[in-house]
Amino acid sequence: MKKDFLKIKDLSKEEIFRIFDITKYFKSLKKEKKITDHLKNLTIGLLFSKPSTRTRLSFEVAIYQLGGFPIYLASESTQISRGESIKDTARVISKYIDGIIIRTYSQEEIEEFAKYSEIPVINALTDLYHPVQILCDFYTIYEKKGILENIKITYIGDGNNICNTLIEGCDLLGIEIRVSCPEEYMPDEKVIKNLSNKKILKISSIPDAFIEDADIIYTDTWVSMGDEKEREKRLKIFKEYQINKKLLKKAKKDFLFMHCLPAHRGEEVVDEIIDSPNSIVIEQAENRLYTQKGLLCFIFEKI
Ligand code: CP
Ligand code: NVA
């Protein structure tokens, strides 16, 4: 049966650690720059309706370095933009290529695609979730801390796709997650309702409610792709949630600052924090390449 990766809970805890092992193996080969044949003879499409730097490039490079062939399709250049149905597109694409990585707006759309597709579908971000990012973020935390148990994660800002996926991932892995969001921008209600262990999540609208014992302090943009019309309103509402020295006054000395990037410096975070020794955002972004390799080998059962 084909394996899709549409949400973080499509993987089990054991599978996540298996992907981490593969990821670690590929990262250890970093300097060799060798092209392997794990994805030999496989053609993998990237169908994107939103911009991307990291996700697109890390997947394209990963596929290439694993001996496969990536094809990028901007969805506005396809017949989807002229009204061809997801059902027909998914069924036709399945006849040409071996897997498809999709970045789009609605989670339902990607689920519909997966339903009609004969090939694996990977979610490269929707308005609701960003599972390939969070898979990488857990790997980065694991790499830095050597464990995932007993880590305390604090997310501050918009209850968006990153926040929703982080919450579901923490539920899956049994990690404590504390979230500070304005009342109007809380995480998705269904995500909260469907938690298997409600105790892992604490939520507050007080920006510095969960700073003191946080091992990880994570934020993301206040204006996600698709939210641009609300930009001015959001900048006002989120002002107090900016990650700066004042907000982090009570933080542990060795907290790690994370951000999926792109960052909007001077909005959700200031230079002083994102450029500080506590910040691991560049390593976090670098690991995207290796976790994509781990994920692809797992999905295509090539290791
Ligand atoms: N973090 C992330 O997904 O970045 P891109 O939008 O550049 O792919
Ligand atoms: N929340 C952001 C993540 C970008 C990688 C967005 O959806 O635009």
Describe the protein's architecture and organization.
With 303 residues, the chain is of the alpha/beta class. The protein folds into 2 domains: 134 residues, Aspartate/ornithine carbamoyltransferase (Rossmann fold); 152 residues, 3-Layer(aba) Sandwich (Rossmann fold), CATH 3.40.50. The protein has 10 helices and 9 strands. The strands form 2 sheets. It has a 5-stranded parallel β-sheet with strand order 7-6-5-8-9, covered by helices on one side. It has a 4-stranded parallel β-sheet with strand order 2-1-3-4, with helices on both faces. Helix 7 links the parallel strand 6 and strand 7. Helix 3 crosses helix 4 and helix 5 crosses helix 10. It is globular, with a radius of gyration of 19 Å. The chain binds phosphoric acid mono(formamide)ester and norvaline.
State the main characteristics.
binds norvaline, alpha/beta, binds phosphoric acid mono(formamide)ester, 14% strand, 4-stranded parallel β-sheet, Rossmann fold
Question: In a nutshell, what does this entry contain?
Answer:
The chain has helices spanning 13-28, 54-65, 86-96, 107-116, 131-145, 161-173, 189-193, 231-238, 271-274, 281-299, and strands at 43-48, 69-74, 99-103, 121-123, 152-156, 176-180, 201-204, 216-219, 256-259. α6 links the parallel β5 and β6 (176-180). Helices cover 37% and strands 14% of the residues.
